[in-house]
Amino acid sequence: MLTALAVIGLAVSLDLLFGEPPTAAHPVAWFGRLVGALDRDWSETERGQRLAGVGIAVLAPLVPAAVAGGVVLGSTAVHPLVGGIVAAVVLFLTTSIRSLLELTRTVVAATDGELADARTQVRGLVGRDASTLSAAELRSAAVESAAENLADGLVAALLPFAVLAPVSLPAAAAVAAWVKGVNTLDSMLGYPSKPVGTASARLDDLVMYLPARISAAAIAVAAVDPTALVSARAWAQVPPSPNSGWPMATLACALASRLEKPGVYTLNPDAELPTLADGERAVSLVGRAAGISIVIAASLVVLVSAGLGLESSPFAEVLLP
Q1: Are 198 and 53 in contact (CB under 8 A)?
Q2: Which of 31, 94, 265, 294 has its C-alpha lying 20 to 30 A from 67's C-alpha?
Q3: Residue 311: its pLDDT value, please?
Q4: Biggest distance spanned by C-alpha atoms of the chain
Q5: What's an example of a GO molecular-function annotation for this chain (predicted)?
């Protein structure tokens, strides 16, 4: 138990201290290049493309999972301390919160004046055309992304890692890398215009079902407003994704603000678009929700360890005497 807690604590500390590594040195970007190579015409028919996409969805995420699990397994064979540190690095590389919050805060602050910088910066958060968005619409885009990426960028990989870490650090690292691989496939291939990405999008929908709803609950707790989660039910299914609407709608209700992607969805439509103060509060709420998610992960470690009667290991004894 203490080993798993120490590993999660080290991973969170690395994120708080350093944020995300440079893109060129980030393993997720390396996997992205592999996905880019798979994004091609495998068949002359749409059905053939979809069938090829099934193979990609099944096999591609196993690559980062095998690498992560293998590296942690090999490191553990050298010494349990080394294995624990490497597992923490894997979790650090498959989750992110500091960079998300910093960029969201930057975009929100940039809307208080000339919008050119905000329109440039928001491209790091959303893919929509920002050239004609107003200051309030730019804040909405940033706030929506912060809520959605709480689930994609933190909860989705952290919670399964926490469940498996007391049992096997290599398995925990593998599942975190697998989840990140699934998310990356969806973000790159999961568009209606790409039949090869249909299976990846469906797999991501399945994987994100619980993380999205847990993230929504964490946002409601962070806002000390459980009614936000109840109110969000009215709009959670409005976005095309069956999952992203939950954390976004919950945050909209917690802020008492309208969040919208023009021409696609509107959440909490009777409210006004977020003000500067709303945007700043959103960053704080998502940050607190991330902290709550980490507490949930730690609780899962304790529950799994207690249920299996597991004890601490030499790694925990080094870091947590």
Answers
A1: yes
A2: 294
A3: 56
A4: 62
A5: ABC-type vitamin B12 transporter activity
Residue 174 has phi, psi (to 5 degrees) of -65, -45
Joined together, the tokens standing for residue 2 give 């203490």
Cα(167)–Cα(246) distance, rounded to whole angstroms? Answer: 31
Element (H, E) at 259: strand 259-261
CB atoms within 10 A of CB 320: 12
CA atoms of 147 and 244, how far apart (whole Å): 8
**pLDDT tens readout for residues 136-176:** 999 999 999 999 999 999 999 999 999 999 999 999 999 99
The Cα 292–Cα 286 span in angstroms is: 10
Place of tokens 């690498």: 67
Helix 98-110 to helix 2-18 angle (10° resolution) is 30
As a whole number, the mean pLDDT across the chain is 94
Query: Cβ(190)–Cβ(200) under 8 Å?
Result: yes
Asked if residue 307 has pLDDT above 90, the reply is no
Separation between Cα atoms, residue 27 and residue 35, nearest integer Å: 12
Q: How many residues does the chain have?
A: 321
Residue bearing tokens 């208080």: 112
Query: Between residues 128 and 163, which one has the greater pLDDT?
Result: 163
